[in-house]
Amino acid sequence: MALRLDDKKAIVADVNETAASALSLVIADARGCTVSEMTELRKAAREAQVDMRVVRNTLAKLALKGTDYECAEEAFKGPSLLAFSMEDPGAAARIFKDFAKENDEFEVKALAVSGQLLGPEQLDVLAKLPTRDQALSMLMSVMKAPTTKLVQTMNEVPGKLVRTLAAVRDQKEAA
């Protein structure tokens, strides 16, 4: 069914708005995947706060103009499935990586993060990025380490004295 000009403008505006607030973009080719497989993929994407959509290449190119993902223009050849990560930059990459393991027909074409176009071989790098909670916990453990080490060192001085006194007591009791 042909799209009217108003429909096309609405699609371009909607995709542009999504791209403006997204943290990363993953573009894939889903030819050969069944409807039930795609339904499962869409369900996983919704749970991970990933906005997935299929858009005509010409409309996608227009929608991404002026955003960080304008660099992905050369990846729009053939059917394209766009996945915008809204909360976590690696969410879409993790979902597509897991889905590609189960489906040989599914192919990731390109990734875009912060205005940089990455090839499909970089999918693992993006998928391994920590989530916000994981990054915060790593930061807190790094911030906590020096104080923990200082307290352990300061606690060792009286502990060593107590152990020395206990050894002297044991030695005098044995004598």
TrEMBL record:
UniProt name for this protein: Large ribosomal subunit protein uL10
Identify the Pfam families for this entry.
Answer: Ribosomal_L10 (PF00466)
Fill in the subunit field for this protein: Part of the ribosomal stalk of the 50S ribosomal subunit. The N-terminus interacts with L11 and the large rRNA to form the base of the stalk. The C-terminus forms an elongated spine to which L12 dimers bind in a sequential fashion forming a multimeric L10(L12)X complex.
Q: What does this protein do?
A: Forms part of the ribosomal stalk, playing a central role in the interaction of the ribosome with GTP-bound translation factors.
Q: Which domain of life is it from?
A: Bacteria
The record's listing under InterPro entries reads:
Ribosomal_uL10, Ribosomal_uL10-like_sf, Ribosomal_uL10_bac, Ribosomal_uL10_bac_type
Query: Would you indicate the residue range of the signal peptide?
Result: none
Going by the UniProt record, its keywords in alphabetical order are: Ribonucleoprotein, Ribosomal protein, RNA-binding, rRNA-binding
MF terms from GO for this chain are: large ribosomal subunit rRNA binding
Query: Species name for this entry?
Result: Spongiibacter nanhainus
Query: Which family, according to the similarity comment?
Result: Belongs to the universal ribosomal protein uL10 family.
Q: Which GO terms describe its biological process?
A: translation
Any one cellular-component term (Gene Ontology): ribosome
